[in-house]
Amino acid sequence: MNEDLKRELIIENYNNPVNKGLTNNKDYISIEKSNPSCIDHFKIEIKLNNNIVEDIRFDGEACAISTSALSISISKLIGKTKEEALNIIDNYNKMIMNEEYDSKVLEELEIYKDISKQPARVKCATIGINGIKDILEKN
User: Fold this and answer.
1) For residue 100, what are the CA distances in angstroms to 69, 96, 103, 117, 126?
2) Residue 49's CB: how many other CB atoms inside 10 A?
3) Residues of the domain holding 78
């Protein structure tokens, strides 16, 4: 994917993130994630139904990398089983850490492939998806 398209996807998902806004519905499981070294702070809600990720919502304040990565992750994970979602998250984290991963499961999330070259941005690219992971692993 060329650099212009990567930038466009990041900016689009930062300016118009998917599923921003909380439900505060008791059927959703929620978690808060913050990065103490910057402004990134999310509250994430997930609705599971028969082992399927039915919905993911979020709100908070964060940088373009954090917000766009969470937005794209949400689009990728809704409708997946918990196991499929955790596999995507595992491959995403491997990619971020510059380890071997299955690119076929990541699709658009591969725009963050070079984040490992910017160590200060790794937390930005993973804070949201690791919040989702925490919920999925505990429920």
Assistant:
1) 20, 10, 9, 15, 17
2) 9
3) 3-138
**For residue 2, what pLDDT band results from cuts at 50, 70 and 90?**
confident
With contact defined as beta carbons under 8 Å apart, do 60 and 41 qualify?
A: yes
Q: Inter-axis angle of helices 119-138 and 64-77, to 10 degrees?
A: 30
17-48 pLDDT, tens digit per residue, is 999 999 999 999 999 999 888 899 999 999 99
In the predicted structure, residue 104 carries a pLDDT above the cut 80: yes
3-state secondary structure the chain: CCHHHHHHHHHHHHHCCCCECCCCCCCCEEEEEECCCCCCEEEEEEEEECCEEEEEEEEEECCHHHHHHHHHHHHHHCCCEHHHHHHHHHHHHHHHCCCCCCHHHCHHHHHHHHHHHCHHHHHHHHHHHHHHHHHHHHC
Count of the separate structural domains present in the chain: 1
Give the orientation angle of helix 82-96 with respect to helix 119-138, to 10 degrees.
Answer: 160
CATH code: domain of residue 77: 3.90.1010.10
